[in-house]
Amino acid sequence: MPLRAVLDFELRSKSRLLVRLENGEQAALIMERGRLLRGGDTVTLEDGRAVEIVAAAERLLQASSTDPLLVTKAAYHLGNRHVAVQLMGDGLRFLADHVLGEMVAGLGLAVTPVVAPFEPEGGAYGHSHAHASEVPSLQPKIHTYSAS
Length: 148
Prior knowledge:
CATH architecture of the largest domain: Sandwich
CATH superfamily of the largest domain: Urease metallochaperone UreE, N-terminal domain
Strand order of the largest sheet: 7-8-6-9
CATH class of the largest domain: Mainly Beta
Structural class: alpha+beta
Oligomer: single chain
Helix content: 10-25%
Radius of gyration: 17 Å
């Protein structure tokens, strides 16, 4: 059975993290700043074992509209507030926040709470869009950890 680490968006964004794998082992994850792990990425333990990163299901708001201009406006206003946004075919998702949900609904989009993995855009300036498995130089380091 492959090793897995189930992490929410906030944890997948941290550059230093103590991770508990599904089998109960702990490991220290060290990544370059601005790096985001994606669901499906694989990191390697010091002993050579692979660990699959799984994007945890989170409480999100999904905003949708048949009008692409409304979706674009919502993405603009959320981005202007530095909110992480996952783009979808007819809408977008962001972490559940009632104030942001009301703002987006006020723009004319239908806003629905959902629980799902969150895979937002990485950002245009210095944030990697590539998966770690696609670019060897982006491989985060994961170290076995034991409390002394």
